[in-house]
Amino acid sequence: MATYRERTLFGRHLVSVADLQPEELALVLRTAAEMKDGRSELVATGKTLALLFEKPSLRTRVSFEVAMRFLGGECLYLSPAEVGLGQREPLKDVARTLSRYVACIAARTFSHSTVKELAAWSRVPVINALSDEEHPCQALADLLTILEKKGRLAGIRVAFVGDGNNVAASLCLAAAMSGMHFRIASPTGYGLPANVLELAGGFAKVAGGSIEPGLDPLAAIRDADVVYTDVWASMGQESEAAQRRRTFAGYQVTSDMMALAHPDAIFMHDLPAHRGEEVAEEVIEGPQSVVFDQAENRLHAQKALIGLLLSKASV
Ligand code: CP
Ligand code: NVA
What we know:
- By secondary structure, the protein is an alpha/beta fold.
- Helices cover 43% and strands 13% of the residues.
- The chain has a 5-stranded parallel beta sheet. Strands 2-1-3-4 form a 4-stranded parallel beta sheet, sandwiched between helices.
- The longest helix is centred in the last third of the chain and has 20 residues, at 291-310.
- The structure holds phosphoric acid mono(formamide)ester and norvaline (NVA).
């Protein structure tokens, strides 16, 4: 396995944040900052990244494509209709075929088991570009943004208000590994899965952070350095949207709520956002909002990630 000193993650998969050791997560973040400053020499010259997407995307698709071009490689976008993952042929055959043609696969799937199965059968790195359980690339950009805005990760207090979904799970795991204090407030039945809380709790113990799940958004936000939210109904949950709007009614991040956070707190959202649902217009458009810096950082984080997964030589 690659160590930090080798400065490479050659050949590895990123299906979950938990696939990284804490020092490897730090390596990706450090490399991302170097990429952003133009100090990294990592390249992916002549290599192809396949984007295998079952769901729509703006940020993930475009940032992967631009990142790959920047590194000297290219992307191949494969839409759901073209591939018919698991319908036209078994997933294991898709993975074994595709990985004979391309150097890396980024997959956005409905089911987490799909991306896991692709990784199990692929001979090249598979990156989870969002599944129903995790969004690790988002967490990389989120931590890079927090590091830039706050100057450190350890000890930073993050309050996530809303659904204990894919974005929350990856952020919770990454925060825990980085020694951050992570609180999440969700309605009953919509919190983070027990396995994520357990895993994150273990990481937090080692890194000196903490994980606090709860129901009360005001308690979660009090004195937070970072306030984070995401949509109430994720892709694939459209039929639950009306019922979720009722259940999550008290969980909109408003300016009254933001007033409870630390005065220098930043507001974060992975986007796309639903103004008037999980966040008030004045918060996402307000001075504490860093959502477009966060979106930009998807690009730098993924340049670093691809560079590290595809470079054999340490840099
Ligand atoms: N945040 C994010 O993953 O956005 P897209 O769904 O547009 O890729
Ligand atoms: N939780 C959202 C994130 C979108 C980037 C979803 O899965 O739709």
